[in-house]
Amino acid sequence: MDDDGVVIIGAGICGLATALALHKKGIKAVVMERSESLRNVTGAAIGIRPNGWRALDQLGVAETLRHTAIRVKRERIISLDGRRQKEISLTNWDGETRCLRRKDLIDTLYAALPPGNVKFGCQLESIKFDPYSTKPVLRFIDGSSIIAKVVIGCDGGKSIIADFLNLKPTKMFPLGGVRGLTSYPNGHSYDHEFARFQKDNILVGRIPINDNLVYWFCAHPYIPKDEKNWEDPEVIRQSTLELLRDHPQEVHELIENADMKSLSFTRLRYRAPWDLLTGTFCKGTVVVAGDAMHVMGPFLGQGGSAGLEDAVVLARTMAQLGLNNGKGGSKLTVHGVEEAFNRFVKQRRMRVVRLSLQTYLTGMLLSTTSLLKKIMYIMLLILLFHNKNSHLDYDCGDL
Ligand SMILES: Cc1cc2nc3c(=O)[nH]c(=O)nc-3n(C[C@H](O)[C@H](O)[C@H](O)COP(=O)(O)OP(=O)(O)OC[C@H]3O[C@@H](n4cnc5c(N)ncnc54)[C@H](O)[C@@H]3O)c2cc1C
Predict the structure, then answer these.
(1) Which domain of life does the UniProt lineage start with (predicted)?
(2) Rounded mean pLDDT of 27-41?
(3) Would you list the domain boundaries of the chain?
(4) pLDDT, average across residues 346-356
(5) Which atom of ligand 1 lies at the shortest distance from residue 16's CA?
(6) pLDDT for the residue numbered 83
(7) 6, 27 in Cβ contact below 8 A?
């Protein structure tokens, strides 16, 4: 059994960002990822709003990423309920918003890390505390084990580390999400805007990444008994076209011409906001971050950015407690790490509670067919989130 210092489980957006933030603060960490290579294709693209750019700036990768995507200047909401298409809202955005190809984001974070920092093909099976040393012991599916000084669980919405911390199980929205990319080798004619088409319980979004590539998604009711094979790209395309048969031609065209390799379907999972309010996110020298802590629906487009914020805050609190000075992690005292994790959780809790609650209410508003419930969700949103974009002003602070 090896003895490692800081071990991060999962090389998604949050795991890589956390490794980079720790590296910048002089704390060595190794990332252990179950896949055999970077998971940089699934999900096609991701919208990053001003709060996410602030975190990327701190991580030192924002400039590189700015060159990969155009700035989106406004949001337009098009209502398709009733007979005629109606523009119900147009908002000009001041803050920086861009839609990044996931591949660009993941590859850029990975490239900024020292070589060999990520170990692939390491699927965590279980974690427990060693009864004598109280250090976390990680067991992998190939039968190997390691003893770590510190474990940061960035293993996503179905997190083994979150289960170990006894967090309540995550829940499902009654909605599924299809995502894809459509290429236009000769250029597309869409404005630099985020267009949202709303009809009944279906939401379609379209955002250009650059002049030749467009990201789109479709959130729609999920029928649990649905026998369709949502893993097959052709089934995803045909089923989405069928769902959107009453939508305008410009929406059809996007899906018909989608790059088949980019298509994916996801059931939308969330950690209930009230569970976030009370959950224990760290125990000893084990903590969770990113989706493992606060998986939320995509309705505000904030899950990934919240994971980037986590990375900055976590590395900063560890460095503030002097955990970055020792060679080989020798300054990683149990007491210091526990204190750092408690401070991290304290700083992040209300931020993620509010993001998750706003996301939850927005998702439930989209999915319900009851007029009474719709009114209730609208009232709660107005009451609790009077300025619906205030979450974008959040600044995670300096690394
Ligand atoms: C439809 C949809 C649209 C979205 N749109 C946006 C958006 O526009 N903007 C935004 O900010 N966010 C968005 N999100 C949310 C965003 O995608 C997630 O919040 C983000 O990807 C989470 O990153 P993560 O690193 O925490 O987790 P993940 O991306 O899930 O990464 C977890 C990693 O851990 C690995 N792993 C899991 N289990 C183990 C194990 N046992 N052992 C080893 N490795 C393991 C996985 O292979 C994976 O690489 C969207 C989500 C969905 C579903």
Answers:
(1) Eukaryota
(2) 92
(3) 2-72+97-172+270-393, 173-269
(4) 98
(5) 25
(6) 64
(7) yes
